[in-house]
């Protein structure tokens, strides 16, 4: 039995105007800088955050004109918004995974800021010729000394809910996760590979199961550090033995829909208790949205 997502994944709900037409207009960027808001982001993806709201500084604190190290996120409530890397932040801070509530505005601004700044941290030299590169267009591309342009890198990854076509779902746990935290199977797309082929390969490699009826569900940015998660469902035979051959998966089990519903009602993995057999991913992950959608039946 196929299903659809019952909601847009949290980090895909951005309502921020990305203002692509402004990025290449240096005069427009300068004009907006004087009243622009500045989001400071640590290398751990933390921002200043209090009572469900982001805390901004004034962009002019960096200087009278756009700072070369800052990235332009778009326009929010009529003001330009920029982000800049900060080693440490004082006061109340949180990353996306630690925020109690992530609204559409926060999702758009923080996800974009973290993804762009993560790219710049490792893009100081052009991949084609190794020459030093400079950020341009509000941080949305970089130019080498010879004028070669490079754009932010995104790593596509599939994530798939495997079910039996009825009331059982296959969930797995990685070695580094808490003992009762289980989630969907996922993996990066290889060169020359279609998304559907990647789904079949990754599931076969990780748990030794063959899948069929692969069906696209939706996608979500996941800037940890720069992924795009592409969600699928697929059907498998629960009688086929599970084989954890590639070493990524510690264990996996078929759970019933009732077991999953009970786990969802208990909250996510942060509500850890010794008596819980099944913990599920946090609310900002597409894995959570997919599991919730399947559990509704």
Automatic annotation (TrEMBL):
Keywords: Hydrolase, Magnesium, Manganese, Metal-binding, NAD. It comes from Nocardia panacis. GO terms for cellular component: cytosol. GO terms for biological process: NAD+ catabolic process; NADP+ catabolic process. CDD domains: NUDIX_NADH_pyrophosphatase_Nudt13. The keyword Transmembrane does not apply. Its EC number is 3.6.1.22. This is NAD(+) diphosphatase. Its cofactor is Zn(2+); Mg(2+).
């Amino acid at each position: 039995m196929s299903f659809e997502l019952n909601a847009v994944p949290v980090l895909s709900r951005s309502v921020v105007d990305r203002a692509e037409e402004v990025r290449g207009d240096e005069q427009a960027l300068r004009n907006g800088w004087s009243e622009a808001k500045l989001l400071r982001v640590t290398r751990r993806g933390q921002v200043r955050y209090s009572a469900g709201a982001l805390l901004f500084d004034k962009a002019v604190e960096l200087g009278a004109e756009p700072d070369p190290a800052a990235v332009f996120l778009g326009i929010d409530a009529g003001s330009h918004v920029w982000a800049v890397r900060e080693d440490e932040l004082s006061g109340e801070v949180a990353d996306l995974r630690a925020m109690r509530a992530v609204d559409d505005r926060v999702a758009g601004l923080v996800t974009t800021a973290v993804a762009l700044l993560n790219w710049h941290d490792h893009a100081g030299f052009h991949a084609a010729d190794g020459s030093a590169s400079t950020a341009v267009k509000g941080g949305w591309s970089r130019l080498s000394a010879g004028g070669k342009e490079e754009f932010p890198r995104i790593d596509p990854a599939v994530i798939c809910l495997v079910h039996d076509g009825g009331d059982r779902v296959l969930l797995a746990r990685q070695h580094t996760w808490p003992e009762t935290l289980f989630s969907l199977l996922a993996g990066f797309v290889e060169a020359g590979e279609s998304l559907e082929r990647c789904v079949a390969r990754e599931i076969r490699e990780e748990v030794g199961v063959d899948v069929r009826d692969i069906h696209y569900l939706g996608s979500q940015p996941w800037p940890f550090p720069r992924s795009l998660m592409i969600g699928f469902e697929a059907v498998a035979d629960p009688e086929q033995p599970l084989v954890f051959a590639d070493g990524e998966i510690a264990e996996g089990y078929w759970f019933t829909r009732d077991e999953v519903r009970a786990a969802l009602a208990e909250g996510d993995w942060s509500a850890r208790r010794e008596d819980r057999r099944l913990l599920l991913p946090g609310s900002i992950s597409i894995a959570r949205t997919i599991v919730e959608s399947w559990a509704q039946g």
